[in-house]
Design goal:
Helix content is about 0%, strand content about 50%. It has no helices and eleven strands.
């Protein structure tokens, strides 16, 4: 059974940083591309970043490009999302995903 558990969320002021982690299990992590998606209150799911299985290729949504960095540690079956210069509009529940499965999310709230 695929299990994806995101952690590291919290309350941060605008301009602050957070680093999210996602612990993966139930599949061979190093063989799959992974993504981060988020869902803000009352809005649809938004894809924000993806990384290939080896970690050498990444893609970002325009809304986070230049501020967020996706990475992975295949030895530890862990996906990361470094989020810098956070804005109030980044407030959402963040999920890691192995398409089409989305794991348990972590809340990020950006507010002064």
């Amino acid at each position: 059974e695929v299990q994806l558990q995101a952690s590291g969320g919290g309350l941060v002021q605008p301009g602050g940083s957070l680093r999210l982690s996602c612990a993966a299990s139930g599949f061979t992590f190093s063989q799959y591309a992974m993504s981060w998606v988020r869902q803000a209150p009352g809005k649809e799911i938004e894809w924000i970043a993806a990384i290939n299985n080896g970690g050498g290729s990444t893609n970002y949504a325009d809304s986070v490009k230049g501020r967020f960095t996706i990475s992975r540690d295949n030895a530890k079956n862990t996906l990361f999302l470094q989020m810098n210069n956070l804005k109030p509009e980044d407030t959402a529940v963040y999920y890691c995903a192995k398409a089409p499965i989305r794991g348990r999310g972590t809340q990020v709230t950006v507010s002064s």
